[in-house]
Amino acid sequence: MKHLVILYGGDLTSHAFDTVFGSQSAFERVFDWATLFSDTIILLTKKDSRIAPSIADFCAAQAQRAHIECIEKDFWTKADFIAQIASSLSSHNAAHAIVSYADTPFLNKKLTEDLLDMHTRYSAEYTFADGFPYGLAPEIIEAGSASILSELAKTAQKAEGEKPVSRDTLFSVMRGDINSFEIETLIADEDYRLLRFEFESSTKINFLACKNLWEEARAQNVEISDAYALSNCAAKTPSVCQTVPAFYNIQISAKYNHTYCYSLASVGKNPAPKEFMALSDFKKILERITEFSENAVISLSAFGEPLLHPEFFDFVREILSANDENHTISLLIETDGVLVTEELSAKIASLASSRHAEVNWIVSLDAVEKSLYAKIHNCSEDDFEKALSSVQILEQSFPHHVYPQFMRMKTNEAQLESFYRFWNEKTSPSQGELIIQKYNSVCGILPDLKPADLSPVNRLPCWHLRRDMTILSDGTVPLCFQLANGNAGNILSDGIESVWLTVRKMLHSHLNQKYTDNCSICDESYTFTF
Q: DSSP letter at 301?
């Protein structure tokens, strides 16, 4: 039965061609894996002047090993991708396709063989692995099912089919009619999903995880071809669990319009070294962030209302202007909405559009009735109407990127269902977008208003130590966003890498299941931001 390997390389970055895996790059390792299963490899790419020469040179050099068929498009939708799979299977008279991205250096030979065996033995139409870290196993789809799925992406699942290709393209379209397909799943003996490893090379954060895992595995004589040994090595290695921050929460303002009952300000413990961050300091911090992380989400809402900063728009402009072909910086603004205006909203949207940058808004509501809102926010009831109207104003400029938020507490638990039912409707001012946020007592500094214990049975190393950096108004970086255990340094005077390595020492303790007094009572280690 003929196999066809189809690789998606439409979103490759320069990291895919960095030679850090011995004498090979991630791209080269993927092709070594592919030639084990087919003498014909279909590579789907975009017309990209930065990456195209690297792909062309490599394919020319590999001509004697395998037939490589490159198919280029300016832009690949999910429907395009699936249609090409079906077309290639038909033209090559192949029974099924082994599908993967072209930047995953740890694709595993044995897992692929096990998937193929399961797929053919049970006459499956689609087969995938579950429980393993992303990047260790491909997907397999049968030719006839690829044709059916292609038609679905153009008809019943057209809305999904018109989206850009993503790493879950096949399943994201298939789940719209999931019962029509014979699906087999290779389930891992150990479940690594909670670790959220993504062993691919599209971003610096994931590329470094791959690079560091390779180096650690070689240093410890871990067999890289053993999926379980490699995954276990990753789970115990600080430099794999924590590479560079994905989320920066920056305090540009220490002032609030409201004294929320769930904020540190409500108990007189706002951690602000300065009332406002200087724009000149922020520019230096942003430069270091973009160089260090390359891709990240930046929030301007740590411990304060960002719109109260007299130069708020200038901060926004700096972030959005940092986006270029080598850096992708998204902006998150969490606000009470009181100061949102149509003019400000439109101005930011125009700038974001010109820079092809993403802006997300969170509006703190926490209630469905103005009397409870006023109680929680310690403000006048009139501000409830301002907050509600801000959602509608922002939605006009940022459709599907505005999230009314409900901080779930004993105080407002009775209104949770009503809040969800109203905002979840596609006809709501947010078009169905919303966030239900868990309550945080900040290691017992605030009253315990948590209505339910959501913590997992088995504790994992803190996600915030792995992925987040909080920066206070003078550049000080707390060891964690809970302000526990002291500071890691100052990003302006100590540098970002030095500060981050100090945070890693705390993560190392977590990996060894050693926790400080504050960490041992913290109820936020399992929450995930970006």
A: B
DSSP state at residue 134: B
Taking alpha carbons only, the member of 133, 111, 282, 297 closest to residue 203 is 297
Q: Whose CA is closest to 524, among 446, 461, 449? A: 461
343-376 per-residue burial string, b: 16 or more CB within 10 A, e: under 16: ebbeebbebbeebebbbbbbbbbbbbebebbbbb
SS3 category, 195:
helix
Q: What is the three-class DSSP state of 142?
A: strand
Q: pLDDT exceeding 90 applies to what percent of the chain?
A: 82
Q: CA–CA separation, 421 vs 414, rounded Å?
A: 13
Tokens of 525: 């280690």
Mean pLDDT value across residues 220-228: 96
Give the pairing of strands 126-130 and 183-187: parallel
- Please give the Cα distance from 143 to 115 (Å, whole number): 16
Q: Which of 438, 334, 435 is nearest to 394 (CA)?
A: 334
Per residue in 259-277, pLDDT (tens digit) is 888 888 888 787 878 999 9
Those residues whose C-beta lies under 8 Å from the C-beta of residue 414, and which sit 6 or more positions away, are none
Contact call for residues 307 and 339 (beta carbons, < 8 A): yes
Handedness of CA 514, 515, 520, 524 (dihedral sign): negative
In Å, how far are 72, 106, 490 from 190, measured between CA atoms? 39, 18, 40
In angstroms, the Cα distances linking 189 to 109, 131, 224, 228, 346 are 17, 8, 18, 9, 51
pLDDT value at 64 more than 70: no
Cα-based angle 453, 364, 319 (whole degrees, multiple of 5): 110
Q: What share of the chain is helix, strand, coil (3-state, %, to 5)?
A: 40, 20, 40
Other C-beta atoms closer than 10 Å to the C-beta of 432 total 11
Instruction: Tell me how far apart the alpha carbons of residues 52 and 54 are, in angstroms, rounded to a whole number.
Output: 5
Which alpha helices (H) appear in 155-278, and where do they start and end?
A: 158-161, 169-174, 204-219, 227-236, 238-241
Which class for 66: exposed (0-12), middle (13-18), buried (19 or more C-beta within 10 A)? middle
Angle at alpha carbon of residue 80, lines to 76 and 82, rounded to 5°? 120
Instruction: Identify the three-state secondary structure at position 333.
Output: strand
Helix (H) or strand (E) holding 508: helix 496-511
Structure tokens at 163: 């989206």
Beta pairing partners, 127: 140, 184
Of 222 and 265, the structure prediction assigns the larger pLDDT to 222
Where are the strands (E) in 287-400, listed by range? 295-299, 328-335, 359-364
Lookup result for tokens 């078009």: 431
Examine the pLDDT at 54 and tell me if it is beyond 80: no
Tell me the chain's radius of gyration from C-alpha atoms.
25
